[in-house]
Design brief:
mainly alpha; 0% strand; Equilibrative nucleoside transporter; nucleoside transmembrane transporter activity; transmembrane helix
Length: 436
């Protein structure tokens, strides 16, 4: 995409005036790049930590609710709520208060994580249909929270530098690796104690709950005040974005500067519509849908219920999910090396389609293979998922103005969840012919 040079010069002029104020009239290079990347990583971690906590606790849920297929039902409850919330925000993204949206989401993550602990304590660690329904209601709240946070963060970071998007995606993958690591540790520590499965799960959830509070603090008190973040948000405002106003005010940007950016933005208000962005990026959107439709058609339901009994016993599903999460994390950092990052949209889409060959591989491995081969396949599933996700998300926003990048970030988050929802629905097909 190419835009008028005059538009770019006007935007730069507003940013120069914004950052010259308070520095004696000279333009300082905005700092805080490394700190911003660290916070993006932590916020990406927090975005999926509540969900990944539920995902890695499947051994506990299978023990409590053996007749209710929790590995599949929890997913099928979670994603429609996340999808519907994200769709609403994607439609209204140009008018949304991004700061308020993201803070509400992280607070909902904290409340829902705490609620699971309270529910377990109130029922003395028992199972039953009533507790299962309560768990599903909490899962729905977590889904709504993701709809608030994920699209808001992708939209916010899409008009900043690609490294922030990659760091955020890396944090999302690290969330899975981190939860798997903590779950393995807590499971090992309490494995031979009385009621050890429950104790490990509760310690694990307590860590998750505390981390949600950390995310609220980082986004509310630290991220918005970093000079480089203020720089990009001022640029977005100068290009017509209304979503960054609350963050600029929270960062201490004076009303006069925001008004100047707003006036400049009004001159550049013409932007591609959401429909036009959708048409222009249909290849990336299909890529994102297909990546997650395949992944979630296998993880976690198939891995938790359809791989048979093996020497690892109750550790088997936990190990498989852990391997997926660790390799997903590694895959998201391979594109840091520019020569290893796929830039062609056609090649990214082709590689995504080729992953569907994993379906027969998983089917025959579950039927005839050993647990070693299953661990290998699960690892490759994670590696390819992480790698292709970063390639797609960093390729999409290039060449657009701030408001369009924000809209595109929200669209990518929406269709990522479309792919996930499709995947968790297709996951039930593994049960065909098994009497359920």
């Amino acid at each position: 995409m190419a835009f008028a040079d005059e538009s770019g010069r006007s935007s730069q002029k507003v940013m120069d005036m914004t950052f010259a104020h308070g520095s004696g009239g000279t333009m300082d290079k905005p700092g805080g790049h490394k700190m911003a990347m660290v916070i993006c990583w932590l916020l990406g971690n927090g975005c999926l930590l509540a969900w990944n906590s539920m995902l890695t606790m499947q051994d506990y849920y299978e023990y409590l609710f053996p007749d209710y297929h929790p590995a599949r039902v929890i997913s099928i409850v979670y994603f429609p709520f996340a999808l519907a919330t994200t769709a609403i925000f994607a439609y209204h993204e140009a008018k949304a208060n991004t700061r308020k949206r993201i803070l509400i989401g992280f607070n909902l993550f904290f409340i829902s994580s705490l609620a699971i602990i309270i529910l377990d304590v109130a029922t003395s660690g028992g199972g039953g249909l009533g507790k299962y329904i309560g768990l599903c209601l909490i899962v729905a709240i977590v889904g709504i929270a993701e709809g608030y946070v994920e699209g808001g963060m992708f939209g916010d970071l899409s008009f900043m530098c690609p490294e922030f998007v990659q760091s955020y995606l890396g944090g999302m993958a690290a969330s899975g690796a981190l939860t798997s690591s903590i779950r393995l540790i807590t499971k090992a520590v309490f494995d031979n104690t009385n009621n050890g499965l429950r104790k490990g799960a509760m310690v694990f959830l307590s860590i998750t709950t505390f981390f949600m509070l950390v995310c609220v603090f980082l986004y509310a008190m630290v991220f918005a005040k970093l000079p480089i973040v203020k720089y990009y948000r001022s640029k977005a405002a100068s290009e017509g974005s209304k979503t960054v106003t609350a963050d600029l005010i929270a960062a201490g940007t004076e009303t006069q500067q925001i008004k100047l950016a707003d006036e400049e933005g009004q001159k550049q208000l013409e932007r591609l519509t959401t429909k036009q962005l959708l048409v222009q990026n249909i290849d990336i959107i299909m890529t994102v849908i297909l990546i997650y439709a395949l992944t979630l058609s296998i993880l976690p339901g198939f891995l938790a219920e359809d791989t048979g009994k093996h020497s690892l016993g109750t550790w088997y599903a936990v190990v498989l999910i852990a391997m997926y999460n660790f390799l997903d994390l590694i895959g998201r950092y391979i594109p840091v090396i520019d020569a290893l990052r796929i830039k062609s949209r056609k090649v990214i889409l082709g590689a995504t389609v080729s992953r569907f060959l994993l379906i027969p591989c998983f089917y025959f491995t579950a039927k005839y293979g050993t647990q070693g081969w299953m661990i290998f396949l699960t690892s490759f599933l994670g590696l390819s998922n992480g790698y292709l996700t970063v390639c797609a998300f960093t390729a999409a926003p290039q060449g657009y103005k701030g408001p369009e990048q924000n809209a595109l970030g929200n669209l990518l988050a929406l269709f990522l969840l479309v792919g996930i929802t499709l995947g968790v629905t297709l996951d039930w097909m593994w049960l065909i012919g098994k009497g359920w």
